[in-house]
Amino acid sequence: MKGIICLLLFFNSLCSLGQINIISIDTSAACRTTLHNEYKSKFQSLNTNMGTLTSSQQNIIKEIYNDVQNNFFDKIDSNNFICDDKVNPYLQKLMYEVLEKNGVNKKDYRILLSRNSTENAYNTGDGTIVVHYGLFLSLDNEDELVFVISHEIGHQYLNHVKEGIESYVKVTTSDEIKAKTKAIERQKYGKAAKANDLLKDITYQNYNVRRKKEIEADSLGFVFYKKTLRNPKAAISVLEKLNVSDREKDSLTIADYKLIFEKNGFLVKQKYFEEEQSLFVKYDKDKGMDVDSLKSHPDCATRIKLIKNNLDVKLSENYSVSDNFSEIKKNSDYQNLLNLIALQRYGISLYEGLKLYKKDTQNEVLRNIIYLNLVKIRNSRENHTINRYVPRRDNLNNTSSLNRFISFINNIKTTDLELIINNFKS
């Protein structure tokens, strides 16, 4: 019972579940207000520096900035960013280490920790580096984290975000694109196909620019990183992990559902996994564009090769050891499940929790997290709001394992769901 109470209070306090210390997450209004005011000032400065663009181009950029910045404020207001008096200063210290070793002005930079469970990090263009908590699921040591931060500093130092937006606007407002657009509008037939072809051309042109910028950020980031005297092999190992980060590392089979849920008379039925086939299912495989070529960190294999070519030292297997990193890494599986709950992504939190639980069915921490998600999903079914919290089946983007889970959640009878909930209730 103590475990459940602690989980219910995890948003506001440090709590021990078994022998696992779950990181305190500050959800106070003061934290959100401070971030909101800070970025209101940052964005005002960014919005007034438009360079030598035409008035029409400036108007388009202002619209882009407005959308991006409103989305950022939405993340702040929805408590997407973690305010923790131990983790945040630790990340800030690592970033300052890179900046100081390279003589870069620290006042222009800020680092935030997002609850996002994807294995990623990004630069916002105003000096802010955002690290997703999910990144810790892949990282094995502090040196890998420092290279990720160095890479994002490289993006900021080279002003890639601002230049990227301006480049895109210049392309889409160029005389060539305007002429092609007008030519398409004059056609009687095939407008949609022509417009789609033009969109692909612009997209791939933008992709090529992004690919170049990623390589530039790697190169400069690696220069920054080497000044820290940390293990250069970390740059290679983290890119190797990012290269496969979008591949599901585990799955749930029907046998797993039986192992996890069959208890106290409840039986897993085949019909729970059945799904009516869409009339359009055969078209789901037509991707239209090469999705893999549009990843947020494209062409890692090429980037790994370029870094290897720039190594001038013998690679060591010794990496930096840090108590702070070790603690975050130790708790990352649990904390990411809790972060998903905080973001109201109960379906994904349950799905990821079950994949861990099947390997450790005596784990009380996972048991309590699964129970909380099941209750939230049960309530959303009763309120007919389940699509807000559980993803939809998607034959194009979801794995077969995830689609199987979604079918299970949608097909299971309410009475059987209650049986499962009671079996997980401590």
From TrEMBL:
Top-level lineage group: Bacteria
Keyword annotations from UniProtKB, A to Z: Hydrolase, Metal-binding, Metalloprotease, Protease, Signal, Zinc
Keyword Signal tagged: yes
Cofactor(s) needed by this chain: Zn(2+)
Leader sequence segment: 1-18
Keyword field contains Hydrolase: yes
Domain Peptidase M48: 87-309
Annotated cofactor note: Binds 1 zinc ion per subunit.
Matches recorded under InterPro entries: Mito/Outer_Membr_Metalloprot, Peptidase_M48
Pfam families, A to Z: Peptidase_M48 (PF01435)
Record family assignment: Belongs to the peptidase M48 family.
Identification of the protein by name: M48 family metallopeptidase
Species of provenance: Flavobacterium suzhouense
